[in-house]
Amino acid sequence: MTDEKTASPGRPRSRRAVLAGTAGLAVATSGCVRQVRTVVNRDAVDQLSVTIVTLPADGDREGIRLAREVAAVLEAVGVDVSVDMRSNEEFLRAILINHEFDLYVGRHPGGTDPDFLYEALHSVYAEESGWQNPFGYANLQLDDLLEAQRLADGEEREAVMAELLEELAREQPFVPICVPEEHRFVRTDRFDGWGEAHPATRLGYLELEAGDDVDRLRTAHTDARISENLNPLTAEYRDHEPFLELVYDSLATERDSEIEPWLAEDWTYDDGTLRVRLREDCRFHDDEPLDADDVEFSYRLLQDTELEDGESPSPPPRYRGLAAAVDAIDVDGELDLEFELDAGEAVAERVLTAPILPEHIWTERAAPATVRGVSVAQGATEAVTVDNVPPVGSGPFRFGSRTEREHVTLERFDDHFTRREDVDLPEASVEELRIQIDPRSTSAIELVSTDSADITSAILETYVLDDLEPAPETAPLESPSWTFYHLGFNTRRAPFANARFRRAVARLLDKDWLVEDVFHGYAAPTATPVTEEWTPEELAWNGEDPATPFFGSDGELDVEAAREAFEDAGFSYDDGALRVRR
């Protein structure tokens, strides 16, 4: 019998034709991820069946379109595919916490410094939650390189990173697809300073200069999670939004990839030792003093939310890589600390960007978690399950009020150190920051256009960008991006542990075509997950992926060549279906 999957296997097929051939593709909106049927009976062979987890169109329009394109080309080479769309929280919980997926498509938070790859790929994190190795990937050679880049600086680090990225390109534990452009829409008549700092950071808001009689900064935010949970340690509720950075101080802050003092007045680094001095007379929003003990406590909590009270460490799903670089902290009085670090200076300074939490509030959260009606994993504590409302930090804004899925309001903290005459740092120029939840890019833009908001604080979807109509009082705002879209494999499951299989899948994707068709050109195809300055010349994009070039040309998949690659990887075909043992 001849069908869309098996007809003319030697003829290149356009992406449109491949996609049209998947009209019967099953798209599930709820339920468990279907398991790959493998290695139960060595004598039985079944068609490879996989599920791709992603966000729905109202959560990530580009993500679901990428997932459907991936599904289409996999079906073209004989794989049975379904797409499982989940809400933001469900998606991140399935991928980062429960590891319930075969493949997924979405954004990786990335980073301006390539050290984010340490926690993204080191095998020691393969069973942890968060963006710490959600792929379950293990490669001892890559581990060695990840550790070496943490210890190196300057040209030595660049050389290690080049070798690391070459190994990553060979192994493809995930497939980097593209780096999307970041666009927002702002009002220029009420505030000056848009774009002085990145709008996904605290400085992007603190650098603003309010106009006369302007005492409120209004954002239109398309992601409701900030109104539901204000815990800086959760993985499924946090994204690239700056608001908790405005509530919680860190010792240092990032500006244009450089690390600058913030809560720390200054520091010195010498051969693995970082000596830090805090600013004097800093206080939390509840008027309790902030001192070196709170800093030491915060890093202990980031290493183990049970505070060494359990059988093994129970780290939170965020800031794990930063805290892991700290071997010990010695407190010397109220203002001075000494960090002993397993890191070179470049990584050591980034360790200082973790949030500082009040010990008097978070100590009791080291207790085992109890969530009504939910089975909680062993070792989980209140620190990672509490919604943390109201949050108590020490930052330039403190919590005011919230209504779930409607708004969060922050109020200026007038006792913040940035308000002092002798401190030369950006400070809050308004008395209030109101985060209004609006679920769609189009309506968020309308709020700015009608003077009901000052910025669309989340990244706008690309389909609206061509229709932006700037006026004298409004303007589009483009910012550098460090996130990237990718296809992730769960290497805990067969056949995704097979690097040859992963490489063959990577070569099914015409990244250049996807950028034009899915992102309307508002993205850049990439072969690596790091910024251009860290990408070695041999892996730089040159019109095609130099590591895993597309099976075909001009958006047309060469199905015969692709199927031969899967056969070379040890798989077989029967009646056009890619077969695996079960």
From TrEMBL:
User: What InterPro entries has UniProt attached to this entry?
Assistant: SBP_5 (IPR039424), SBP_5_dom (IPR000914)
**Keyword Signal listed:** yes
Gene3D superfamilies, per the entry = Dipeptide-binding Protein, Domain 3, Periplasmic binding protein-like II
Keyword set includes ATP-binding: no
Cite the Solute-binding protein family domain residue spans from the record: 258-576
Among the GO biological process terms of this entry, one is:
peptide transport
- Short name of one Pfam family for this protein? SBP_bac_5
Report the superkingdom from the record.
Answer: Archaea
Please provide, alphabetically and separated by semicolons, the GO molecular function terms listed in this UniProt record.
peptide transmembrane transporter activity
Which keywords does UniProt give here?
Signal, Transport
Q: Which family does it belong to?
A: Belongs to the bacterial solute-binding protein 5 family.
Name the UniProt record assigns to this protein: ABC transporter periplasmic protein
Question: What high-level taxonomic lineage is stated for the organism?
Answer: Archaea, Methanobacteriati, Methanobacteriota, Stenosarchaea group, Halobacteria
